[in-house]
Design a protein that fits this description.
Elements: H1 10-37, H2 51-60, H3 67-79, H4 94-129, H5 134-148, H6 151-165, H7 181-211, H8 214-221, H9 226-238, H10 240-244, H11 246-263, H12 269-278, H13 282-310
């Protein structure tokens, strides 16, 4: 067995997974009753239905029963993996809609996180190694700007500049239903900019601290080359705070995708969620909330496991 695997405790992982169950239960419960408390109905529209017709529709979907019975029935269906039918998308189940939108959201979110960690980490390393230089001030100034400007401002401006004025990329939508570099580059970059800025600042501070540590001084006194000091001694320590940042970053990417998919007219889960909320499509909103909560819990678990792999001092 590789040495790093010995630092990962299977009981710890099982314990975290068991803790996730009541957390999901709380999320489902709060979301269910908040959706029902919101005014309006998924069956209301501009033309009011006859009372008999509306009562029949409510009976078909079980919405004529007491609220606690609806909740217990829905909870039982979720345990079986059935999120129910979409209330506003005819002949579509929530699982089918999630299956259609998840590849788009996962691709954009995954690429945005990868791009943010690679670019932000690289810029942070450069800035940390050139502390208090013009390069350092310039990179950190850009990072501050990236944190200050929200994605819902950057997105439309990027679509206008690079999609209309300089038509390098698509300003929105997919290419005949397919994801291509032409269609997803702007959404990925827009979603990742905030995290590039944050990661570069974290990595800069971590790199400066690592280069000032005692074992780096010891390595220099032994004549170890600067390249080896950076790659083999400083970098493994400096990257640890970024591993801890995976959890919060994944939450931000999930919530940020709601805005980005809307801005760039992408048929992802975020767009389905917004449409479902506006149309009071209870089952669709609930399905997306459960999926997002599950992904966030899993990403936090992945961050803990990676931290144990990279840091020999941590053992679960």
């Amino acid at each position: 067995m590789p040495r790093f695997l010995s630092r990962i405790s299977l009981p710890f992982i099982l314990k975290r997974l068991l803790i996730a169950i009541p957390t999901l239960f709380v999320v489902i419960t709060v979301a269910f009753f908040m959706m029902r408390a919101a005014p309006g109905s998924p069956f209301s529209n501009d033309r009011r239905l006859e009372p008999a017709v509306e009562a029949q529709i409510l009976a078909v979907y079980g919405h004529d029963r007491p609220l606690h019975e609806q909740y217990l029935t829905y909870l039982g269906d979720v345990v079986r993996g059935d999120f129910g039918p979409s209330l506003r998308n005819k002949d579509k189940t929530v699982s089918e809609l999630i299956g259609e939108g998840f590849p788009v959201s996962a691709t954009i979110g995954g690429l945005a996180m990868f791009f943010a960690f690679v670019v932000g980490g690289g810029l942070g390393i450069i800035s940390g190694l050139k502390q208090n230089s013009a390069v350092d001030y310039g990179l950190m100034g850009v990072a501050t700007l990236g944190i200050s400007i929200p994605s819902y401002v950057v997105g439309p401006v990027a679509a206008l500049v690079f999609g209309v004025w300089i038509p390098i990329f698509a300003p929105g939508g997919l290419d005949l239903g397919r994801m291509t570099p032409y269609t997803i580059t702007l959404p990925v970059i827009t979603l990742s900019l905030y995290y590039i800025a944050g990661i570069s600042r974290i990595m800069r501070g971590s790199m400066i601290e690592a280069m000032r540590s005692n074992h780096i001084r010891t390595a220099r006194s032994k004549g170890v080359s600067e390249r080896e000091i950076i790659l083999k001694h400083a970098l493994p320590i400096a990257v640890l705070p970024l591993v801890s940042y995976i959890g919060p970053a994944s939450v931000g990417v999930v919530t940020g995708s709601l805005v980005i998919e809307r801005v760039f007219s992408l048929p992802g889960i975020g767009s389905f969620f917004i449409d479902g909320a506006l149309n009071r499509d209870y089952t669709l909103v609930m399905g997306v909330v459960i999926l997002f909560a599950t992904l966030i819990l899993l990403m936090n678990l992945v961050a803990d496991v990676l931290y144990a792999i990279l840091d020999p001092r941590v053992k679960y």
